[in-house]
Amino acid sequence: MTLLQESSLKQIETAIYEHRRCQNDLFYFAQNYVYLQDRAKKQTVKFELWPYIEKFFRLYLDPAVHLLIVGKARQVGMSYTVCVIAIWLAKFHQNVKVLLLSQGEEEAFDLISRCRFIDNNLPDFLRGKRDPDQRGFLGFPATNSEIKALPSTEKAGRSTDATLVVCDEWEFHPYAEDNFAALKPTIDAGGKFIALSTGDPTRLDTYFKRKYNESKTGFSQFHRMFIGALERPGRDTAWLESVIQDLSSIQRQGEYPLTEDDMLTVLKTRRVFNQDRLLEMRSMAMKPIKHDLSDKYKGLVKIFQPNVVGNKYYMFTDPSAGIEDPFATTIFEFQTGLQVASARGKVPADMCAMIHDDLVREYRAFNSYELNSSAGGIFSSKLDALGTPYRWPFIDNNWVLHPEKGYGWWTIGMKEGGKRDRIIWGLEEIIRLNQIRLNDIDFIDELINIIQPEGADPGAPSGAHDDCMIACGAAWQIRKYMPLNAGTVKSYSYRRQ
């Protein structure tokens, strides 16, 4: 045997030995072969087995632990950690099915991308073949195993046979209880369930909080674990102060709790809009249909129902400059309150105006728009140039129409309680009374998160937006001024078709 042959044989023997060792030892695999993407630094970094991650691994591997609930601060590495387990299971064990459930579609696909990154950065002798890449799926033919990522929809988890189910940010899943009930049979059959989440200090009774509190009583099948903001190595009080100095009290408590009590304590803050109504809308939302305007604007425009001859429509746009905040446009049918079309995205104000004009002409919609900021001025001038029809005349701070002053309106400085109270509370009323039905999921999700801290005005949490709320609430206000002899809006009946 030549030296080259001996060297090749030794390499093969080493590869076989390392593969078996990784298969039998999650800790060894994670410490020696897993690399992660540090997105902040844009670097590939070696996975570190911090003390709480070691504890988490041991809990997961414990045969007596089938239900594990983890409360945590942000950025403690747990999303990547569960992806390490997912890859380890799927690559080294036969007939494994891992299900990753996240709050929304993009979050679910982000988890899959983390799994894919881990696998792509393994050495050749561990990587092996994968099924053709799909956005929410990783398949491993050598083990007949797979990792699938799904958003937390009403039907997620039904008829699923899974080895491991991971619910990331479980506090924020719209169907957490339904999903868990659907998945319980597969857990009882020997599968494992891991729930991870930061807390939402604005919500008292969530399924995550309920199960976490139950785990403290000793009468629950859930084993619990908490990871505080300062437990990650390298963090101290000085670091924490620098991170939270520009955050609201809601963000501080929700994202960087130090104790379990911090995570579970609810601030004197409430959700503005009826959550049950919004979740009902979400579950019944129509899917956008194919339409020329959707193609023209590359998906920015969503059409849920085409213009019906004889129907009447009203419309409002909250424009933007396309830099920081997105614009939002919505159209409703007069009689039913059904959202028939919408548009949202970050584009320049003149393009916002073109979208607005096209939708106005498509639906012959009575329309208006916000004049706030320079974007509003550019937007309005563009509509003048386009000759946009059916525009609502200018309204002053006393809610008096002034056709001689042009079109559009300012949503700040209005009377009736100050600021934008009429917009917000008018919208709150029609949602609560079932007089409106939204179809755009982005609009619904934004409204779900609108809050009112004690002693403060309602609005979006810091870092979030309220453009969809303004568009919907202002549209309802202009409906009152439509020059039409139309009937009373009926309560929308949510019946499954």
Characterization of this structure:
With 497 residues, the protein is an alpha/beta fold. The chain folds into two domains: 258 residues, P-loop containing nucleotide triphosphate hydrolases (Rossmann fold); 205 residues, Nucleotidyltransferase, domain 5. It is 39% helix and 18% strand. The protein is built from 18 helices and 18 strands. The strands form five sheets. A seven-stranded mixed β-sheet has the order 5-6-4-7-8-3-9, sandwiched between helices. A five-stranded mixed β-sheet has the order 11-14-13-12-15, with helices on both faces. Strands 1-2 form a two-stranded antiparallel ribbon. A hairpin with a 4-residue loop joins strand 1 and strand 2.
The main sheet orders its strands as 5-6-4-7-8-3-9
Could you tell me the number of beta strands? Answer: 18
Number of helices: 18
Global geometry: elongated
What is the CA-atom radius of gyration, in angstroms? 26 Å
Which architecture of the largest domain would the CATH scheme give at its second level?
Answer: 3-Layer(aba) Sandwich
Brief description of this entry?
The chain is α/β, with parallel strands linked by helices. The chain contains 18 helices and 18 strands.
Topology:
Blueprint: H1 3-24, H2 26-33, E1 35-38, E2 43-46, H3 51-61, E3 67-72, H4 78-92, E4 97-102, H5 105-120, H6 124-127, E5 137-140, E6 145-151, E7 164-168, H7 176-188, E8 192-197, H8 207-215, E9 222-227, H9 237-244, H10 249-255, H11 260-264, E10 269-271, H12 275-284, H13 292-296, E11 301-303, E12 313-318, E13 327-333, E14 339-345, H14 349-363, E15 366-369, H15 373-386, E16 393-395, E17 401-407, H16 421-432, H17 441-448, E18 451-453, H18 467-479
Parallel strand pairs: 3-8, 3-9, 4-6, 4-7, 7-8, 12-15
Antiparallel strand pairs: 1-2, 5-6, 10-18, 11-14, 12-13, 13-14, 16-17
Helix pairs in contact: 1-2, 1-4, 4-5, 12-17, 14-15, 16-18
